[in-house]
Design brief:
Length: 277
């Protein structure tokens, strides 16, 4: 792993996060490259270490072991066209983090013999606590699979899915999921303010409560149902609130919202609508 040459096409926030995670895990900066048309983005990467930066995509991925396509979906066709020759020459593993760009589209742009991993990270990867699902085409070797696991594992939890279509569900769950929690916290803060708390107090108590609940959920040896039961005393305040959530159909609302997100992800993958919409 430490000798693998990894080239990033695109030097935005997600690329910078993965690079930061790789450096923190011990990957040498001299084995990392990045290409981007924006000089300021490349300058930020160079502040992380001795990373080679380029304005030319083909030059950035010459003889690379891994090429990470970290561009927006609407820029993917152009990015693939710029690296198809060096990728074919080196036999590099290509990892795409672009939402809605299918394996078929990636193979169409890079060649059917290309080893491709499609993944769906989420924004907490920016803090090293992301959740990323991955799917590999049939050309990916066990060694390349392990390499992809190590790279994306540098910014959080990873899960391999057996079917590409499951990435649409992952998009609805963890890809879009941070926004759901932000919305719920926003609603809690507003409710706290309506009850007479200052916004500063309501915000601090809400965000810390969310952090504590997440840590309990990930670090406890019991499941979420039991954790909720332990907080919900019979006849108490939590029980009254939970009963209200259940009566108002919170579970169905969440399911409907996630289904809508999953359908949108499928539409984007099928190219039926502009992914920027």
């Amino acid at each position: 792993m430490n000798k693998a040459v990894i080239s990033f096409i695109g030097a935005g926030n997600m690329a910078a996060s993965i690079i930061g995670g790789l450096l923190e895990s011990g990957h040498p900066a001299t084995s990392l490259r990045a290409s981007d048309p924006t000089a300021t983005s490349l300058q930020k990467l160079r502040q992380l270490g001795a990373i080679a930066t380029f304005s030319d995509n083909a030059a950035a991925c010459a003889d690379a072991d891994v090429v990470i396509l970290a561009v927006k979906p609407q820029m993917m066709a152009e990015a693939m066209a710029s690296v198809v020759e060096p990728v074919a020459a080196s036999g590099a593993l290509v990892i795409s983090i672009a939402a809605g760009t299918t394996i078929a589209a990636l193979e169409g742009g890079l060649g059917s013999a290309t080893a491709v991993v499609r993944c769906m990270p989420n924004t907490p990867a920016l803090l090293g606590v992301g959740a990323t699902a991955l799917y590999a085409n049939g050309n990916v070797t066990p060694v390349q699979r392990d390499l992809a696991s190590t790279i994306l594992g540098a910014v959080g939890l990873i899960e391999w899915v057996p079917e590409e279509s499951q990435l649409d569900a992952i998009t609805a769950l963890s890809g879009s999921g941070p926004a759901y929690f932000f919305l719920f916290m926003e609603a809690m803060i507003n409710a706290g303010c309506a009850m007479g708390l200052s916004r500063e107090c309501a915000t601090a108590m809400t965000t810390q409560t969310a952090l504590g609940a997440a840590r309990m959920a990930t670090e406890s040896d019991v499941d979420l149902v039991e954790l909720r039961r332990r907080v919900t005393s019979p006849g108490g305040t939590t029980e009254r609130a939970v009963q209200c959530f259940e009566h108002e159909g919170l579970r169905d609302l969440v399911a409907h919202a996630m289904t809508a997100a999953q359908q949108r992800a499928a539409e984007m993958g099928a190219g039926k609508e502009d992914p920027r919409a």
